[in-house]
Amino acid sequence: MSDINKQAPRVPGVGRYQELREKKALILGGSRGIGRAISERLALEGVNLVINYSRSAAAAEDCARACESLGVDVQLIQGDIGDEQSLMRVIDFAKSQSSIDILVNNAARGLERPRPALTQKSQHLHKTMDVNLFGPWFASQTVGAAMAENGSGVIINLLSPGAWKYMPGYSAVATSKAALESLTKYLGVELASSGVRVCGVSSGWVEGSDGEHSYRDEVSERVRPHVPSGRNVAPEDIAAVVAWLSSHEAPMFGGQVLHFDGGFDLSSWQNILET
């Protein structure tokens, strides 16, 4: 991570949202990068966690220790979110002891094989859609129905700027995330009357995420000078937004997507005309 992004604001020593204490969150893809930042921030808020991970048990255990040090209960569950049977096993495990108050759909894939849309391979497209779209869809169906029965809950989908802005070689991820954005809006309307909010979070380029170097080399360095705020988005920035959306301070935010990028998108024409 660059020196400038090491100066990104970190979470404070005390949680902001007391109403989140003793709530329970299931975080799909919660052990590394953005997911870990979300796990740690919710732990700081006093939220008990079920953290799903796909491959690295060591990374998941390290994340769990960090969250437990903040005084919350943490359970780990391995599972491939792109496989429906595996996903249902994860959800059943999370629901086995108490209801889920917060569902964070962060698991994602697709950056490892950047190609133009015209040359994307069928197998890669199917797997990307399974993890990025159908996994969150099936999880939201199951968890959302239980939340509706309880009369409350929050589902938060992590999206991507590629869903609304062209990024070369990003077609598989972009299309899956655009579909997830649409699903966020549909579920937001369908679940609102039951007291369940469905929200989307879409940031600018994230420096310090797992996908940072999977896409292209030196993207962070090339984007940073064009961000009016002076730095790229950090995982902790996203985690702070997730905590806010989970709280009672965002009661009317549902079926909508929160975009934030430090002014990068707004300044595009300035960058073109002044360079």
What is this structure, in a nutshell?
The protein is an alpha/beta fold.
Key words describing this protein structure:
alpha/beta, Rossmann fold, 7-stranded parallel β-sheet, disordered N terminus
Protein described:
There is one protein chain. Helix 4 (84-95) runs parallel beside helix 5 (122-150). The chain has a 7-stranded parallel sheet, sandwiched between helices. By secondary structure, it is of the alpha/beta class. 43% of the residues lie in helices and 14% in strands. Residues 1-13 have low confidence and may be disordered. The protein is globular and about 55 Å long. Helix 5 links the parallel strand 4 and strand 5. It has one domain (17-274): Rossmann fold, CATH 3.40.50.720.
Radius of gyration: 18 Å
Helix share, percent:
40-55%
Protein structure class: alpha/beta
Low-confidence segments, ≥5 residues, pLDDT <50?
A: 1-13
The CATH architecture category equals 3-Layer(aba) Sandwich
Order of neighbouring strands in the sheet with most strands: 3-2-1-4-5-6-7
* CATH superfamily grouping: NAD(P)-binding Rossmann-like Domain
CA-CA gap between termini: 26 Å
The fraction of residues assigned to DSSP E strands is: 5-15%
Average pLDDT: 90
List the quaternary state of the chains. Answer: single chain
Main sheet attributes: strand count, strand direction, barrel closure: 7 strands, parallel
Q: How many individual helices?
A: 10
Give the C-level CATH assignment: Alpha Beta
Strand runs, count: 7
Tell the overall outline: globular
* N-to-C series of helices and strands: HEHEHEHEHEHEHHHEH
The CATH topology comes to Rossmann fold
Overall number of structural domains: 1
